[in-house]
Amino acid sequence: MTFKQHMLASLLITTPLFANANLSQSQLDSFTQGTKLVFAAEDNFHNGASSLIASMTLTNESDIALGKGKSDWQIYIHSVRKIHSKSAAGFDIEHINGDLHRFVPNDNFAGLAVGESIKIEFEAAVWVAAYSDFMPRAFMVSQQNTPAIFANTDTEDFKQYIAPFERENQLRRYNDPVDKTQLASAELRYERNLSSVSITKEDALKRIIPQPQKVDFNRGSAVLDSTWELRFAGRLTSEVAVFKDDLADYGLELESKADHIKASKAPTIYLKVDESLADGAAESYQLEIDDDKIEIIGSDNAGVFYGIQSLLALFPAGSKNTIAVPNVEIEDTPRFVWRGMHYDNARNYHGKDALFKLVEQMARYKLNKFHWHFSDDEGWRVEIPGLPELTEIGAHRCFDLEEQRCLLTQLGTGPFKSGSGNGYLSREDFVELLKFANARHIQIIPEIEGPGHARAAIKSMEARYNTLKAQGKLDEAKAYLLTDPKDESKYITVQNYTDNSFNVCLDSTYAFIEKVTYELQAMYRDAGTRLTNLHFGGDEVGSGSWTKSPACDALFSDANNGIAGAADLKPYFTQKVAHILAKRGISPGAWEDGLMYDRVNPFKRDEFPNQTFTANVWDNIWEWGVADRAYRLANDGYQVILSHGTHLYFDHPYEAHPEERGYYWATRFIDTKKAFSYMPDDVYANADFTRTREPIVNLEALVGRAMPKLEKPENILGMQGQLWSETIRTEEQVLAMIFPRILSVAERAWHKASWEGDKIAAKPFAKDWQSFSAALAVKEVPKLVSAGVDVNLPVPGAIRKGNTVYANSAFPYLSIEYSLDNGTTWANYADPISVSNNAAVLLRTRLDDKNTSRITELN
């Protein structure tokens, strides 16, 4: 090698590689592997409550330098806050659709050398006060190369790609109006956890969730082991099969026979049905436990099943083979017929196991309605025979701007079909889930979301149309088309979509609904049950939809069809769907705003042929002036399911802290206690705070008009929790957001507490909450974890008095640990601890070897 050749080789090794107009695949991969992309909330106080300044910083630690000026590469990020800025720091910023945004270098781009950083500040909608508002898996695209994810963003660990929130203008949402939220701290938690009520462990073990109507404990106990026998009415074969599986988890294998076979002298559990029990009230039961006899009598099969759950609830956590349960007499009847949980599986799919675990635990706590939101803009999650595109395209997101292979990537999925949130249940899987739920007396209510929130279906059917049209099958291609190709309507939704509304003027839209409903009915029949309720969404339709649709103009031009303009189209759609479902013997359901002409007037109930038409009422943001819709809809003849955002939305954070996952548009936080405090018999009694955390002292004055009274209480069917999954990407995350808050829904839906009224009675509430939360700690949470359910553990509270630290937990008897060496070692907190004046103390709650809460610091 010559001297010149040697020098050139040395330069190639030591000089960074500059990329100009084009990046090769290896350069793209190298740059995104070595460059850190970090988001930051710079200033929430920038523009009142309207917008914030956020930033994206690129720190180039790779061996690839980006050249100045325009290039063909682009950076894509997921931002649920729509970015207002059109350019910044040498980039043009473009909103693609939904949360997807693109940063494209322009002539002013200064380049990015190895070892240097560039900070791109931009203005975006509203505010960011939680790390989960920033989405992972930012990626880079160049030419036709495979997209590359910035490695440090390919994670669920917020700290890897988000700068810390430390200042007031990061931790609070806005300063005009003033955000009066009390931000979570060890001291605030300690104050909130304090109680004058003490519950013994023995009483906590006896606490059944949900609490029965009448309980009378007696002396003594029954000690169950495998010498016990089981006798049951023949109609209870299914319930017995589930019961035996549950007993097996505790190491109990009981001989079981139908009740025409006489029991031996061995101790025996008897399962019976008496339809006259509780005056024939459905789902009622009696449970009596004696030393050598347990008898469960139900008014129906469901009642027997719930009696079994109460028996199992008395089993201590972790017990095996020999189990002592206290002697007791219980008489019980549910408060509501509708005790439910809504689960948005469309925004992100979390796997088959998550669905089965949720249904199994719902049954444990006597919840009976599973509202499965399987379709939305970001995904379609069940296989429909004859429409394979719904899952081939609609169940997956990736980088395909033409959306012929997948949906546009959203919500932190990134550019690949292997990314988080993708997937669906096969037809076989769904039938299996239906059988599993039916055996546990849980009805699954599927939701075909429309006419808004329907992008996954729309894009799937457009892909179908394009394929069949290319094959010359134009009539077949049009059969299930959900959009009018000539529609020039312009709109943007709350979630920043511009193309997510079914065209309600097309016959093919209703053919699609009919086809999907038909296939769902077939699945229910195959599972040995019936599809009796189907939800069609109806909410958040983009304003401006159908205003420039030729298909809709043709409807308007016909003077005899009762449709004069765009404002008539939502009720028109609802009527059409209601008639389709009535023909099939199915009761429709919708979200409240899908049933309203305006803020106060529901659609005319007598225009729908359905005996039952359920309405999920969610919007109780009191200052918005529509929180009386529950009573307006019930009074007009709709069957109302209370689903209120301020207490029952479990996609909201557990506390006001940036590390807590979730959206927080309805209220800054919803912990287990707040859900527990919900009072379904008086909607107005739940008016506690405005969104700014201003106490509400006069609801009528806040709203500015008279609030209607409930005239038809029989139309309040019950209540349910809600879980929307925009920020929730894994099974672990989704279950922890639901549990243990769902137990509060079970409690309130089944049992009316003595402290409920036009306001909370403080002393009986404190006693009831301490009993409930102690039961969570000593047995319910351990049982959930043992069943493979990830549970959120409350972060402990603590205060310092001089050199002494005092700690407590929201759940009595949950272990607390502390560290005085920044988390290197941990010790169990049993009594107040002495520390030096300047010592920082870390604390956390612990359940077992694997499960701890988030860490809090006491300075």
Describe the protein.
- An eight-stranded parallel barrel has the order 20-21-26-27-28-29-30-31, surrounded by six helices.
- The N and C termini lie far apart (64 Å).
- It contains 22 helices and 38 strands.
- α8 runs parallel beside α10 (427-438) and α13 runs parallel beside α15 (569-583).
- It has 859 residues and is α/β, with parallel strands linked by helices.
- A hairpin with a 2-residue loop joins β8 and β9.
- The chain has four domains: 25-171, Immunoglobulin-like; 214-332, Chitobiase, domain 2 (2-Layer Sandwich); 338-760, Glycosidases (TIM Barrel, Alpha-Beta Barrel), CATH 3.20.20.80; 797-858, Immunoglobulins (Immunoglobulin-like, Sandwich).
- Helix content is 26%, strand content 23%.
